[in-house]
Fold this sequence. Notes:
Mean pLDDT: 95
Strand content: 15-25%
Helix content: 40-55%
Order of helices and strands: HEHEHHEHHEHE
Low-confidence stretches: none
Number of strands: 5
Shape: globular
Structural class: alpha+beta
Oligomer: single chain
Number of helices: 7
Distance between the termini: 30 Å
Largest sheet: 5 strands, antiparallel
Amino acid sequence: xxxxxxxxxxxxxxxxxxxxxxxxxxxxxxxxxxxxxxxxxxxxxxxxxxxxxxxxxxxxxxxxxxxxxxxxxxxxxxxxxxxxxxxxxxxxxxxxxxxxxxxxxxxxxxxxxxxxxxxxxxxxxxxxxxxxxxxxxxxxxxxxxxxxxxxxxxxxxxxxxxxxxxxxxxxxxxxxxxxxxxxxxxxxxxxxxxxxxxx
Length: 199
């Protein structure tokens, strides 16, 4: 089991070329996301992270909304490149939306004023761990994914279409699907510059 865990960590990458196929059922996709949500740590057990899984027409709708928002601000000569990028995400199987419920964060700030300035950062840390858990879990199930940030550009449209509470702040979008190409080689800094051990 530990070997599978370490292999999953090493194999998780950003995949931008993905297809609309799946090797597992929608039920299985939901299960791995639910497991991550239930078991991700959070400061003060706040559990402020929220997730929405978009499949089929809902997945397509998200990227249509994103194109509608981008076409208003992207220069015409840059549009073809931008549209191709968004189409690559739309060509996937689904999208995971990540949110934080700011009502919970504000409640903790009021209850524990000594740490008030830390709670937003702690919520972000927990959400980041959740994103990584789901990303790696999807990879284990045969999917490739990437993490996107078209917020706050699409925030209001997303809330209106899917009737999302105003207290939920959109953090990231994760399109996923079966990889159709290998990711590019990733350069890494020497481990000696990033890790120290003191005995």
